[in-house]
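Appendix C reproduces, verbatim, an entry submitted by the partner laboratory led by Prof. M.T., so that reviewers can inspect both the input and the predicted structure.
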Amino acid sequence: MPPLLEVDGVTSGYGKVEVLHDLSIAVPEGAVVALLGPNGAGKTTTLRVISGTLPVWAGGVTFDGRRISGRSPYEIARDGLLLIPEGRGIFPGLNVKENLEIGVRAGDNGSGRGERMEQVLDTFPRLRERLSQRAGTLSGGEQQMLSLSRAFLGNPRLLMMDEISMGLAPRIVEQLFESVADLRAKGMTIVMVEQYLTYALRLADIIYVLSKGRIEFVGEPCELRDSEALASSYLGAG
C-alpha cells in the first residue's frame, strides 16, 4: 500500500537560500512520524512545504495519491491535511466556543460534528469551563489545548504538529501528549516536530533525523535509542 503522504526529492527554501536538499519522507496511513534534529535542520521548513505555505522548487509532495505541491494551503487543508504551527494559530480575539466552531465548520458536511465537539470537551474539560472566554487571554497551555481541539474538530486525515510543547510547563506538556496519544490510538496519522525527545520516541512509529536540510537517519525509535552517538551528534542528547 502506498504511503498516505510522500515527500519525494523536495528542494525548497527562502528567497535564494536553499534549505531542503532533495528531501524524501514517506508517512504510512495510521502512523506517527517524528521529524527530529537540531535548530536549523529544516524541520519546520518541511512542514511548511507540505502544507503549501512554502513553494516546492524541485520534487513533489503527494497526499492520498494526489500531487498537492503547487496547490494553495486552503485547498490542502480542505483535503484533510492540517498543520498546527509553532505559535498555536488560534484566533485570539474570538472566544473559545467561536474558535471551536470554526474548527467544526472546517471539517466534514455535518456528520459527527456534535459528537466530536463533546469528545474534545471531555478530553479538555478546562476548555468547557472557558467557552465564553476570549482565546487570547488563555494560558499558553490552554491555547495549545484549543489549537489541538480545533484541529481534531476539522476531521483531518493527517495532522502535522510543530513544537506543540514550546514554552510550556512540563505538567502541561504531559497532558498535551496524553491527548496526542489518544489521537494515535484512534488511528490518526500524525507528523510531529518536537523538541522533547522522550515524547517523540514514546509516540512515534518512524523517526527521521534531519541535519542541514538532509535526512541523516530513518528508522524506528528503538534504533535511535540504541545509537548514543547518533543521538548526541544530531539531537544534542548526552
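Residues 1-80+159-164+189-238 form a domain with the Rossmann fold fold (CATH 3.40.50.300). Additional entries are available on request from the coordinating office.
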